[in-house]
Amino acid sequence: MSKKYYWLKLNENFYEEDTIVWLEEQENGVSYVNFYLKLLLKSLSEEGKLVRYVGETLVPYDTKALSKLTNTPVDTVVVAMKLFIEIGLIKQLEAGELYMTQINEMIGSETESAVKRRRLRARETAL
To answer: Angle at Cα 83 formed by Cα 79 and Cα 85, nearest 5°?
Structure first.
């Protein structure tokens, strides 16, 4: 089975968007934006959902688990999550998953074999 690689595409004006500017204006705002980017990256393989399962049971992320997942202080997670939900960057779904609302505009992926083919074509072109 081949690996699948994911990437996060940020517009060049990401830090100039009103939402990000507003977040950075908050006390500890730069930490909130960094935490947001970490959540986006952690949700890539699940198409924007932050999900964890114990066996076949969905266990929603709590503050402590998000802190551990992203290596972010708990107090930062508490305030940031409240803000993210309030301004619509994150939605909490019925089953408890967290959904990153802007992820569809920022996601890309390819398989390991596609990476190899692309590299091979680049080498052949360079010759």
So the answer is: 120
pTM for this prediction: 0.80
User: Residue 52: CB partners within 8 Å, gap ≥ 6?
Assistant: 58, 59, 61, 65
Residues 6+ apart with CB under 8 A from 48: 99, 100, 101, 103, 104, 107
CB distance 31 to 37 below 8 Å: no
**Cβ atoms within 10 Å, residue 9:** 9
Do 104 and 111 form a contact (C-beta atoms < 8 A)? no
Helix extents (H) in the chain? 18-25, 29-43, 63-70, 74-87, 112-126
3-state DSSP call for residue 109? strand
- For 54-87, what is each residue's pLDDT tens digit? 898 888 899 999 999 999 999 999 999 999 999 9
> Residue 53, SS3?
strand
